[in-house]
């Protein structure tokens, strides 16, 4: 019974550490907000700058998985190219080594858990404040405290193998099979990271095990290799429902880490000897290859334990650093490989959501960035519908007319579906603790997708009016068709202005003169056509029914213009 309790205590301590890590990471992402997006999206062609960006972001938010998922989502949203994403992912791998050093330097060297309860009190005070940003800072402080409480509990809950050798004693039996043991623990590290969905949690467990003398240095190093394989699974899961670019970015991460583990395993002894020399000659700690009991008796438990911690942290750092320095020159080859492994399907995906397939990110601001890209795509889709309206207006052939009408009808159905999908996505984002500006963006996006759906309805209504005209045998003369085509061209100008405004950073839009100008031209032209229409009816230039169809088309076009100016005004209100 005591052994079972110890195991569950160990698992609970690990869960507390993992929860603290997750809470701190997500809070840091929220505090950073859209600044992360701007930072990532401003990448240049310099591969070393991309690496530094990935390193910096991961060091800040303390989660390589979060950075990698973010990068995959940005590739999915078209904010980053595959080449850029690979560079950022390489940097994220280096950045995640900061976590191991923080744990080694603070979590073991000093009992920082003493400060955990006071930190939770400070975090709670922040949580009581009205500002959403300060509440998020409170979450971050509490997460940091819980992380080290979990680490402290993890250390104290690890059983002493000398007094209770039956607890995980099987691990010692698996360490004596030479290179097979190395491969087994690579698999264990991979499996643990997949299960825990956090390489940091697995790293913490590895550090505890090596500092307690459970496993020797080379076995712990093998677990570190496994963690680098397991951490790629999170991005692949996120990309599984994304587009081709997202899946390629996730696969590039896997290829990068697998290749790194492969060359390290081939040069395993020389690599570990390099780490040993650094630890002994530069840091002045015992040789990590030395048996734990011998190192403890010769140097003392604290020095032996610290040396082991630094050695494993150094393994983690050098692995990712050397792997990046080696493979950064082969990024184009990695890109070609993943493109070949995941080819682009040739079927028409015009009506498929492009940017929000990967699901909601842990940061509302970044999720809204994806939604904005999807809305721009939605707007462009509605502009293409308007192109079919132009064609159907002058089409004389019955079969081609029917084909174009079906396209207009299909676009209207697609608009309904896309509005529902984006609104559902925004509903999920709204469940987060949103900042004031994020909350306003969500509300504006609800209005925008509603107006875009109305544009789709109007496009279909134009087709229905033309269909009724055709069924009743009415015909427009060349002058009427010319004027209607002019109105549709004005709508295209309004579409361009609307799409330009939708594609900007919402909070930075200070004027929409392009949209206002386009709307005024449409209204003036509508007024002129109405007056001309009344004169033509008086002069009996065409029969009354033909005139009804004609002016209905003019009014429906003007209504589309109203929807478009409403969208630009929704963007302007956010500033």
List its salient traits.
Methane Monooxygenase Hydroxylase, Chain G, domain 1; 2 domains; 24 helices; 575 residues; mainly alpha
The gross shape turns out to be: elongated
State the helix count: 24
- Per DSSP E runs of 2 or more residues, the count of β-strands stands at 0
Low-confidence sequence ranges: 161-168
Q: Span from first to last CA?
A: 63 Å
Largest sheet: none
What do the pLDDT scores average to? Answer: 79
Instruction: Give Rg in angstroms.
Output: 31 Å
How many domains in all? Answer: 2
N-to-C series of helices and strands: HHHHHHHHHHHHHHHHHHHHHHHH
Helix/sheet category? mainly alpha
**Proportion of helical residues:** over 70%
β-strand amount: under 5%
Walk me through this protein's architecture.
The chain is an all-alpha fold and 575 residues long. The protein folds into two domains: 2-341, no CATH class; 364-573, Methane Monooxygenase Hydroxylase, Chain G, domain 1. Helix content is 79%, strand content 0%. It is built from 24 helices and no strands. The protein has helices at 2-32, 34-41, 47-61, 64-76, 82-95, 97-108, 116-127, 132-157, 170-173, 179-196, 199-211, 217-230, 232-239, 244-266, 268-282, 292-299, 301-327, 331-341, 364-393, 398-430, 436-471, 478-502, 513-538, 544-573. Helix 10 (179-196) crosses helix 11 (199-211), helix 11 (199-211) packs antiparallel against helix 12 (217-230) and helix 19 (364-393) runs antiparallel to helix 20. The longest helix is centred in the C-terminal third of the chain and has 36 residues, at 436-471. It is elongated, with a radius of gyration of 31 Å. The termini are far apart. The model is unreliable at 161-168 (pLDDT under 50).
């Amino acid at each position: 019974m005591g052994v079972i309790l110890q195991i569950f205590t160990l698992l609970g301590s690990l869960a507390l550490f993992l929860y603290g890590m997750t809470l701190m990471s997500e809070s840091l992402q929220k505090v950073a907000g859209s600044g992360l997006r701007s930072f990532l999206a401003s990448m240049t062609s310099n591969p070393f700058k991309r690496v530094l960006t990935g390193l910096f972001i991961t060091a800040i938010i303390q989660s390589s998985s979060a950075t990698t998922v973010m990068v995959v989502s940005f590739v999915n949203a078209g904010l980053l190219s595959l080449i850029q994403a690979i560079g950022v992912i390489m940097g994220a791998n280096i950045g995640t080594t900061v976590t191991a050093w923080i744990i080694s330097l603070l979590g073991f060297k000093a009992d920082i858990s003493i400060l955990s309860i006071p930190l939770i009190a400070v975090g709670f005070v922040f949580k009581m404040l009205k500002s959403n940003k300060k509440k998020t800072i409170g979450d971050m402080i509490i997460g940091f405290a819980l992380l080290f409480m979990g680490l402290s509990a993890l250390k104290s809950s690890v059983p002493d193998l000398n007094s209770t050798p039956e607890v995980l004693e099987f691990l010692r039996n698996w360490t004596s099979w030479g290179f097979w043991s190395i491969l087994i623990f690579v698999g264990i590290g991979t499996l643990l990271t997949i299960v825990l969905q956090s390489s940091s949690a697995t790293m913490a467990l590895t550090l505890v095990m090596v500092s307690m003398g459970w496993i020797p240095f080379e076995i712990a190093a093998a677990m570190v290799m496994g963690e680098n394989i397991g951490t790629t699974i999170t991005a692949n899961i996120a990309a599984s429902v994304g587009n081709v670019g997202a899946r390629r970015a996730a696969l590039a991460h896997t290829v990068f880490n697998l290749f790194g583990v492969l060359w390290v395993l081939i040069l395993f002894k020389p690599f570990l000897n390099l780490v040993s020399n650094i630890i002994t000659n530069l840091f002045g700690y015992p040789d990590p290859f030395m048996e734990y009991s011998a190192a403890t008796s010769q140097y003392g438990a604290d020095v032996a334990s610290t040396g082991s911690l630094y050695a494993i942290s150094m393994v983690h750092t050098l692995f990712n650093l050397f792997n990046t320095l080696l493979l950064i020159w082969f990024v184009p080859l990695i890109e070609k490989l993943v493109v070949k492994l995941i080819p682009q399907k040739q079927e028409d995906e015009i009506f498929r959501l492009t940017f929000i397939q990967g699901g909601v990110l842990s940061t509302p601001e970044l999720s809204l960035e994806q939604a904005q890209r999807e809305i721009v795509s939605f707007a462009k889709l509605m502009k293409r519908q308007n192109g079919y309206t132009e064609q159907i207006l002058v089409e004389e052939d019955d079969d081609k007319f029917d084909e174009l009408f079906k396209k207009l009808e299909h676009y209207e159905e697609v608009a309904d579906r896309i509005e529902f999908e984006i609104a559902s996505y925004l509903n999920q984002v709204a469940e987060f603790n949103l900042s004031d500006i994020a909350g306003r963006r969500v509300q504006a996006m609800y209005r925008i997708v509603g107006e875009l759906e109305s544009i789709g309805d109007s496009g279909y209504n134009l087709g229905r009016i033309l269909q009724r005209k055709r069924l009743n045998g009415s015909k427009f003369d060349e002058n009427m068709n010319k004027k209607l085509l002019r109105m549709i061209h004005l709508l295209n100008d309004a579409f361009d202005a609307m799409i330009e405004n939708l594609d900007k950073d919402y909070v930075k839009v200070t004027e929409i003169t392009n949209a206002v100008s386009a709307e005024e031209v449409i209204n003036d032209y509508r007024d002129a056509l109405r007056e001309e229409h009344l004169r033509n009816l008086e002069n009996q230039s065409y029969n009354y029914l033909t005139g009804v169809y004609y002016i209905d088309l003019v009014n429906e076009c003007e209504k589309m213009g109203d929807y478009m100016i409403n969208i630009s005004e929704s963007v302007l209100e956010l500033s």
